Amino acid sequence: MNSFLSFVKKEFYHIFRDKRTMLILFGIPIAQVLLFGFVITSELKNVQIAVWDKSNDITTNQIINKITSSGFFELRKIIYNEKDIEPTFKKGKIREIIIFEEKFAEKLSKEKTAKIQIIADASDANSANMMVNYTKGIIADYLVKRNANIQYPMQIITKERMLYNESLKNVYMFVPGIMAMILMLVSAMMTSISVAREKELGTMEVLLVSPLKPIQILLGKVTPYLALSIVNAIIIISLGYFVFEMPILGSLTFLMTETILFILLALSLGILISTVAPNQQVAMFVSMFALMIPTILLSGFIFPIKNMPLVLQWLSALMPPKYFIIILKDIMLKGTGLAFVWKETLILTGMTIFFIVLSSKKFKIRLE
Amino acid sequence: MTQTPIISVKNLNKKFGDFTANDNLNFEVYKGEIFGFLGANGAGKTTALRILCGLSKPTSGEINIAGFDAYKQTELIKRHIGYMSQKFSLYEDLTVFENIRLYARIYGMKSKEIKEKTTKILDELNFAHARNKKIKDIPLGWKQKLAFLTAIFHNPKIVFLDEPTGGVDPITRRQFWDLIYKAADEGITVFVTTHYMDEAEYCDRVSIMDLGKIVALDTPENLMKTYTAKNMDEVFIKIAR
To answer: What residues of B are in contact with residue A6 (Cβ under 8 Å)?
Structure first.
C-alpha cells in the first residue's frame, strides 16, 4: 500500500510541476465555459442595417423607428439608389438593407398593400435567416398595433412556452456539452499521454520490473486524474450555476454519481488508448481524433442528433458523451432521477465495463 | 570466488512467430561476479535480458533466478533484483531525492532508512548539494550514476544493466564502472549487456551472442588466449564473422 501511495504522489508531482498540464487541467475548462457563455451566442444584437426609403413618409419613418429601437438593429446608412446596395454589403459591416417602395403610406391606406423588400447578407445563412425573421416580426407587430381597433371576423391566438428553458438560453446547451468534452479531455487524453510518457522515457520498464503489480501501476496513473476530473466537474457546474444561472433542479448527489461514472468510462478509454499508443504524440493524436472530435461533433453538443443523416445518427449512438449529455440535461433542467435516465446510465455502465475488460486484457498482452 | 550459481538458465528458447530470438541458451552466473552479456545489435541479448527480468515470458526452458523459479515465482524474483534500462529510469521533473525515495518505497523500504542511506551515498560521491535538484538540471554522467545507484538502492541480489553507458564519455564510463565494482564488492551480482568491447574486459566473465546463440563464454583473458587476440575487440570480430 505504501509503495502504491508513493507512486500516486509521484503522479501528482508530474501534474503540478508541468505548467502545460496545469493549463490544460484548469485553464481550458474555465476558458471554455466563459468563452461559450459570453462570446458564442446565437441571439441577434445590434445588427447594422441600411435603409433605402424611396417614400420617406410618416409610416416608413415609424417602421424604421420601431426596427431601430428594438435593440436588435442599428441604422448605420441611408442609401438612395440601387447601385449602392452591393458596395454596402461588400464593405462587410452592414448585414441587412430594408427598401421601402415609393408612396408607401399612400398605397397602404388606399390600396391596402405596400411593399418592403428585405435584403440580407446570407454569407452567414443562419443569422441571415434570423435577421429577416426578426425584421418581419417587427413589421407585422407594427401592423397589428396600428389595426388594434379593427375587429377581425375570426382569430387564432397562439401562445408559446419553452419548457425547461423558458428564455432559450444557450448556456443550458453548452454547460453539459463542455462538461462531457472537458472530462473526456482530462480523463482520457491526459491519462493516455501520461502512460505513454512512461513508455517513451523507459521508466515503464523499470516499473514493470519492480514489485509493483501492473494493476497498481494503472490505478496509480488513474487515481490523480480521477480526483482532478471531479474537481473540474465541480468547477464547470459552479460556473454554470453562479455565473450563467444554469439551474440544477435534480439531486446534486445523483449528478455527481453520474459524473463519476462518466469519468471512469473516460479513464478506461484513456488506458485503452495508452496500451495501443507507443508514444505521447500518438496518444494525443488518437485521443484527439477518436475522442475529442466525435465528442464535439457527434454527441449532440453542437449539432442536434435528430438532424443528422441516418448513418451519423447510428454512429452517434456509439458515442458515450451523447448519453452523458442527455443525463446531465435531464437532471439539471428537468430535475429527473434514475427512473428517467436508467437506460442511458445502463449504457454508460456497460461501456465502462467493456472498456475496462478490454484494456486490462490489452495491457496483459503487452507485457508478453 | 565462490562458485554458487545465482542465475541458472537451461535450454532457454524464445520465439516470435517463426523468428527464433534465443536459441537454446545455457549458462550460469555466479554470486558476486560481473557477468558481461555481449553481442551485436539484434543478436538476442536484450530479449534474453527481458526474460530474466520477468518483462517477457520464455517459450521454453528452465530458469532460476536468486533461487526462484522464473515461471511461478516472478513476484519473489522482482523483490530481489534491480534493473536499469538503456533509457534513463529517472524522472526528469522529480528531484534526486524524490526519485530515490519513489523507487525505494516501491521496494518497501522505510522512510528513515531511505533518508539515512541517501545522505550516506550522496556524501560518498560528493554530490550532497544536488539532493534537491531536479534530474533535468544535472549533467548526463551524473544521471547515469544516479540511475545505477537507484537501481541498487534496495540492496538487490542481482542488478541487470541494459547497455548502461550509451552516449557518455570514456571518463564518465570509467567512473561508472568504479560504481559497478563497488556494488560487486558488496555482494551484488551484476549482469550487464554492452557492445563496448573495452567494457567487456572489465567483466569477470563474458558471454558472446550471435544470431540468437551463445557462441562463447569465458573470462576475457581466456577468450583472448583461445582466439589469439590482443583485446576483446579482436575476439568479438573473430567470433561474430
So the answer is: 101-102, 105-106
CA distance A62 to A236: 46
The cell for A308 is 443528422
Q: Is the pLDDT of residue A151 over 80?
A: no
Q: How far apart are CA A264 and CA A281, in angstroms?
A: 23
Task: Write out pLDDT tens, residues A260-312.
Answer: 999 999 999 998 998 888 888 999 899 888 888 888 888 887 778 888 888 88
Torsion sign over Cα A261, A265, A270, A275 = positive
Is A160 among the domain residues? no
Answer whether A201 sits within 8 Å of B88, measured CB to CB: yes
Q: Which residues contact B229 (CB under 8 A, 6 or more apart)?
A: B223, B235, B238
Q: Is residue A162 part of a domain?
A: no
Q: Give yes or no: residues A61 and A91 share one domain.
A: yes
Q: For residue A62, give the H/E element and its range.
A: helix A58-68
Residues 199-218 of A with CB under 8 A from B: 201-203, 205-212
**CATH code where residue A99 lies:** 3.40.1710.10
Query: Is B176 in contact with B152 (CB distance < 8 Å)?
Result: no
Asked if the Cβ–Cβ distance from A211 to B54 is below 8 Å, we say no
| b/e code A183-212 from CB counts within 10 Å (16+ = b) | bbbbbbbbbbbbbbbbbbbbbbbbbbbbbb
pLDDT of residue A42: 61
The domain in which residue A360 lies consists of 8-40+170-367
Q: pLDDT at position A368, please?
A: 47
Q: Residues A114, A137: one domain?
A: yes
Question: Helix B140-151 and helix B170-185: axis angle, to 10°?
Answer: 20
Structural domains of chain A, count: 2
What distance in Å separates residue A23's CA from the closest CA in chain B? 17
ipTM of the complex: 0.89
Amino acid at A279: N
